[in-house]
Amino acid sequence: MPRAILATCLCLCAALALAQGQTTYQPQLGQEGKDVPWVPTPDRIITRMLQMADTTNRDLVVDLGSGDGRIPIAAAREFGARGIGVEFDANLVELSIRSAAKQGVADRVSFLRQDLFQTDLFEATVIALYVSQDMMDKLRPKLLALKPGTRVVSHQYTLGDWEPDEQAIAERRNAYLWVVPARVEGTWRLWLAGDSYEVRLQQTHQMLKGSAEFRAKQSPVFSAWLRGERIRFAFVDRNGNPRSFLGRVGGDTMEGLSSTHGEPDMAWTARRQ
After folding, report:
1. What DSSP letter does each residue of the chain carry, written as one string?
2. Domain map of the chain by residue range?
3. Measured between alpha carbons, how far is 235 from 211 in angstroms, rounded to an integer?
4. Strand pairing partners for 182?
5. How far apart are CA 156 and CA 165, in angstroms?
6. What predicted TM-score, i.e. pTM, was given to this entire model?
7. Which of 42, 93, 164, 181 has the smallest count of CB within 10 Å of its CB?
8. Strand 60-64's sheet: what is its strand order?
9. Please, are residues 41 and 70 in contact by the beta-carbon 8 Å criterion?
10. Are 53 and 118 contacting, i.e. CB atoms less than 8 angstroms apart?
11. Which residues does the chain have with pLDDT short of 50?
12. Architecture per CATH, 28-179
C-alpha cells in the first residue's frame, strides 16, 4: 500500500476512534474532579429539589458542579426553565452538551467549563448544588449576597448556621431549600392608620427579632418570618391588641396589610431610618 494512502487510512482510523471514544464516554462513579468526586444526584431528588424551588419557565437554573448535566436538563425538560451547568471537567461538559441535544433542550440549556467559585450568579433565580460541606461553607457568603428571593437547593449538604427554609427526603436522601432573604436589620419608622411606631429589627439570615415602640411604650416583635422579600411579624399595638403585619420589602421601604382580631385589615408602610 502506498505510504500516502496508508497515512490517510491511519488518520481516518484515529479520527474515527476519537469520535467513537467521545460518543461512548461515560463518567465513572466516584471519579476524581477538581474539587469533589463525581457522584450523580438521583432523578427523584432532582425533581424534588426543583419542585421545592417552585421552578417555572421564568427561571434561570444554575447548577454549580453540574457533572453530566442532568439538573439543568431536567429543569428545562420538566419545568420549561432555562438552565446553565458549570463544570470544570471538559469530558463532562461535552457529555452534557450531547445529552441536552439528545433530550431536545439544547436551545434552553448551556454548559460552561469553569471554576464554580468564579461564576457570575447575578442573573440566576435558582441555584442547584451537590458539592461538599466544605464547599457549601465557602459558597455561603456569595449565596447570601444574591438578590433577595433567589432560591438555593442542595442535595445532601447544608449551609451551616443558615437554616433551610424547607427540607425534604426522597430515596432516603435529603434535599434542602433556602430563599435568599432581604436585608432588613436596622431601625424602621412604621406608619399605620395615622400612628407611627419605631420598629427595631435584628436579623440572622431569615430569622428576625426586635421591638416596637409607640410613645415610649415598647412591645417585643414576635412571630417574625422572612422569606426572600416577603416579611411577616407581629407586636402589641397601642390599644394592647396583638397585631400582625404581612408585607414586602423593597430596599429601604416596606409595605403591606396589617390585621388584628375583630377589625378589618389596614394598609401599613415603613421606611428604614
Report:
1. --HHHHHHHHHHHHHHHHHHHHHH--PPTT---SSS---PPPHHHHHHHHHHTT--TT-EEEEET-TTSHHHHHHHHHH--EEEEEES-HHHHHHHHHHHHHTT-TTTEEEEES-GGG---TT-SEEEE---HHHHHHHHHHHHTSPTT-EEEEES--BTTB--SEEEEETTEEEEEEEPPP---EEEEEEETTEEEEEEEEEETTEEEEEEEETTEEEEEEEEEEETTEEEEEEE-TTS-EEEEEEEEETTEEEEEEE-TTS--EEEEEEE-
2. 28-179, 186-272
3. 8
4. none
5. 15
6. 0.85
7. 42
8. 109-113, 82-87, 60-64, 126-129, 151-155, 173-179, 166-170
9. yes
10. no
11. 1-22
12. 3-Layer(aba) Sandwich (3.40)
**Residues 72-103: tens digit of each pLDDT:** 999 999 999 999 999 999 999 999 999 999 99
Residue in the structure block whose three cell numbers are 394598609: 267
User: Does residue 111 contact residue 87 with C-beta atoms inside 8 Å?
Assistant: yes
Can you name the CATH fold of 186-272? Lipocalin (2.40.128)
Q: What is the pLDDT of residue 11?
A: 35
Residue 32: all three cell numbers together: 476524581
Residue type, 5: I
